[in-house]
Amino acid sequence: MFALRTTGAGLALAVLGFAAPGAQAQFVSASGPTRSAIKPEAVSYLFPEQVSLPAGKPTPVALHFRIASGLHINSHTPNADYLIATTFSIPAGESARLEHASYPVGKEMTLPADPKMQLNVYTGDFAIDARLVAARGNHLVQGKLRYQACDQVQCLPPKTITVPIDVIGN
Length: 170
Hints:
Layout: H1 8-25, E1 43-47, E2 50-53, E3 59-67, E4 72-74, E5 87-89, E6 96-102, E7 107-111, E8 114-122, E9 125-134, E10 137-147, E11 149-150, E12 159-169
């Protein structure tokens, strides 16, 4: 029988020898085309981060969003009942409430897969005009935007993102 004698340095080299190929596989060469495994959000909330409102009075606030390039989302008034409308809400129990929301007019579009089907969608940047009512004080309100994003071929599952707004009721 053979006896194997290991030292701390030998063991460390052995571990590195086995780990190095896996570590190398995690790095992407700058010379070839790559696709990121990290996907950006389909819709991002842009601004405002903070608003000052007269306490107890409905006040207009424009909420700005951006849809990722190459994607679209159904408008608030899609052309078919089975399509998921884009909606903004503020959950009950928040220190501010949504009195009303006005949505932009969507853009008509068709997809190559079904040119007879007209869609009503948002692309790029869009804004929702909300009328908020806030209690007196400083409140971090967690609004919600629900949407379904699609590209020219397929749709992602419906998603709801948080829309954080620091609301100051004066």
